């Protein structure tokens, strides 16, 4: 049985400007040309800010990581604050449809982004019925301070607790390998959403199911604990 679905935010619910913010902030610390989308997905996505800053500087050859990481992380935050205020992001329509459908089936839905910026973004997304995307969710542990970031399961464990559901009855929806590994480490099922052609990375991380659009998920089957894609016929229904 499945009782709750835990959503990562960046790359799952919103096409957020984190990657762009990191790249803009890099000037003067390392060569931004090395900060590709593949680099971001593999080494930065899903990690807390300072960890992401350290990983980036280490891998891009900055010689004084310890001295520069905090300043780099701070500059990245200033850039993303500006990008969010300018509404330089979009919510993924398939993710909104999934959140609405899950609510209708009676499953609890929880937000669990490592980022402290998740709320600011979700509160700016207005649905056709004038609710905010943020208001659909039963609980939100985004940006909570945990001892370690993903792939440690601490944040997802907090999310499960927030709706009083044991980990074995939770499904995590993630776009980053670190998040998939965090779900596994926490004893939760995981659904990988591969929006960037990175199915293989998510499978290698151990995702129980990988889709390229959240519309492929069989929501009706989820309630009885079955994680699978919809049949081809059903997927073609309007
Ligand atoms: Mg993500």
Nutshell version of this structure?
The chain has 11 helices and 8 strands. By secondary structure, it is of the alpha/beta class. The protein folds into 2 domains: 159 residues, HAD superfamily/HAD-like (Rossmann fold); 68 residues, Putative phosphatase, domain 2 (DNA polymerase, domain 1).
> What's the number of extended β-strand segments?
8
* CATH class wording of the largest domain: Alpha Beta
CATH-defined superfamily of the largest domain: HAD superfamily/HAD-like
Poorly predicted spans: none
User: How much of the sequence is in beta strands?
Assistant: 5-15%
The backbone outline, from C-alpha atoms, is globular
> How many distinct domains?
2
Q: Count of helices?
A: 11
Structural class: alpha/beta
In CATH, the topology of the largest domain is named Rossmann fold
Which molecules are bound in this entry?
magnesium ion
What does this structure look like?
Belongs to the HAD-like hydrolase superfamily. CbbY/CbbZ/Gph/YieH family. Keywords: Carbohydrate metabolism, Hydrolase, Magnesium, Metal-binding. InterPro entries: Beta-PGM-like (IPR051600), HAD-like_sf (IPR036412), HAD-SF_hydro_IA (IPR006439), HAD_sf (IPR023214), PGP-like_dom2 (IPR023198). Its cofactor is Mg(2+). This is Haloacid dehalogenase-like hydrolase. There is one protein chain. This protein is α/β, with parallel strands linked by helices. The protein has two domains: 4-15 and 89-235, Rossmann fold; 18-85, DNA polymerase, domain 1 (Orthogonal Bundle), CATH 1.10.150.240. Helix content is 41%, strand content 11%. The chain contains eleven helices and eight strands. It has helices at 18-25, 37-43, 49-59, 65-85, 93-104, 118-122, 154-162, 177-185, 199-205, 219-222, 232-235, and strands spanning 4-7, 14-15, 90-91, 108-111, 139-140, 170-174, 189-193, 209-211. A six-stranded parallel beta sheet has the order 5-4-1-6-7-8, with helices on both faces. A two-stranded antiparallel ribbon has the order 2-3. Helix 1 crosses helix 4 (65-85), helix 3 crosses helix 4 (65-85) and helix 8 (177-185) packs parallel to helix 9 (199-205). The protein is globular. The model has no long low-confidence stretch (mean pLDDT 93). Residues 8, 10-12, 45-46, 175-176 line the site of magnesium ion.
